[in-house]
Amino acid sequence: MTNRLTLFFTAPGQVEVREQPLADPPPGQALVRTLLSAISPGTEALIYRGLFPPDLPLDENISALSGGFSYPLKYGYSAVGQVEKIGSGVERSWLGRIVFAFNPHESHFCAPIDTLHPLPPGITSEQAVFLPNLETAVNFVMDGRPLIGERLLVFGQGIVGLLTTALLSRFPLGRLVTLDRFPLRRKTSLELGAHASLDPGIPDLHREARTLLGGEADLCYELSGAPAALDAAIALAGYDGRVIVGSWYGQKRAELDLGGHFHRSRIRLVSSQVSTIAPELIGRWDKARRFALAWELLQAVQPERLITRTFSIQAAAQAYQLLDQHPEQAIQLVFTYP
User: Fold this and answer.
1) Of 34, 215, 18, whose CA–CA distance to 108 is shortest?
2) pLDDT per residue over 154-206, tens digit each?
3) Residue 166: its pLDDT value, please?
């Protein structure tokens, strides 16, 4: 029997860390002691604020996230830890391995062996906690299919937006322009390869964006989580332009102008979500292949430089207060465990 610390969202603006007993691993499973877990800033900010749709399952593709969005709720899907115990039927070689798991924020957990992913050689724990968000960025790039010389806009430079920018900057694009409200994120965006980065609140944003792009956008990504940004993305897309919508708005609603430019310009809106592969790619791609690619890209992107602050799991309330009240200071927050 092991005692574990588990983070629970208990009400809007409230979290608790509870100590609970955890039984030894059953057959086919392992007990993992968590070393690090990464906060997903966009999704977890919505949960913290109570802006989630209550009738939506947490994630039907992650067994550790069963049930629906309702308080009290434990969440998180990016944990790195060390295997401490194994159940019957599990090879002893698993003992001591450092593994990644799609698991909520808690100090210890039991999981089936086939859901644990040993870190490849050369990958650090600090890199591995970025794996889910980097896989999401890979999915966005695959769904957008940027072409050589195209002009791109990326709305939102939170962690997923920055990782998407880092991947897009590796393409021979014509221009890559990003937008975010916060100076720290715009500065980081330029360091990751954007040609320019704008504050979306500036006067005459559309004219300034077109000037920096050298024309209308061929491809826009809406990754800000702000519904108003989707309307701006549509307005800045050129004829037959693509707008990839990667944001999850929760209960927020988007008011869109679809009467003029959108209607006559054949603009395409594409929903992109990492839990599936685009239907036109499934003849050659599956989730395992995309996941393997995300592992390979971790060393190239070096996302650990995007960790803004680390918090002990016992100080989780401070982490979410920072995320809620001062998002301009937070790119990636990471929990450590005793």
Assistant:
1) 34
2) 999 999 999 999 999 999 999 999 999 999 999 999 999 999 999 999 999 99
3) 98
The encoded tokens of residue 309 equal 């602050």
Given this model, what pLDDT does residue 60 score?
54
> What SS3 class is residue 86?
strand
Which two structure tokens, joined as six digits, stand for 243? 């707008």
Amino acid at 297: L
For residues 238-266, give the mean pLDDT. Answer: 82
> Which amino acid, one-letter code, is at 126?
E
Angle of the 159-168 helix axis to the 131-144 helix axis, nearest 10: 50
Query: What is the rounded distance in angstroms from the CA atom of residue 160 to the CA atom of residue 140?
Result: 10
Asked whether residue 142 falls in the same domain as residue 270, the answer is yes
Based on its alpha-carbon atoms, the radius of gyration of the chain, rounded to whole angstroms, reads 21
> How many structural domains compose the chain?
2
* DSSP string over 243-258: EEE----TT-------
Q: 170: which 2 tokens?
A: 């590796």
pLDDT of 121 over the 80 cut: yes
Ramachandran category for residue 233: left, alpha or beta (phi over 0 → left; psi -120 to 50 → alpha): alpha
In the chain the first and final C-alpha atoms are separated, in Å, by: 17
Task: Answer whether residue 38 is part of any domain.
Answer: yes
Mark whether 275 and 142 lie in a shared domain.
yes
| 195 and 223 fall within a common domain | yes
Strand ranges (E), the chain: 2-11, 14-22, 29-38, 79-86, 98-101, 108-112, 117-118, 151-155, 175-179, 196-198, 217-222, 237-245, 268-271, 307-312, 332-336
- The pLDDT tens digits for 73-95 are 999 999 999 999 999 999 999 99
State whether 81 and 21 are in the same domain.
Answer: yes
Q: Tell how far CA 151 is from the center of its chain.
A: 24
CA 184/CA 284 separation, integer angstroms: 39
Average pLDDT value over all residues in the chain? 92
| Structural domain of 211 | 137-281
DSSP-H helix ranges across 61-146: 125-128, 131-144
Residue 110 lies in a domain: yes
Rounded to an integer, what distance in angstroms lies between the CA atom of residue 218 and that of residue 150?
6
Tokens of 138: 């890979």
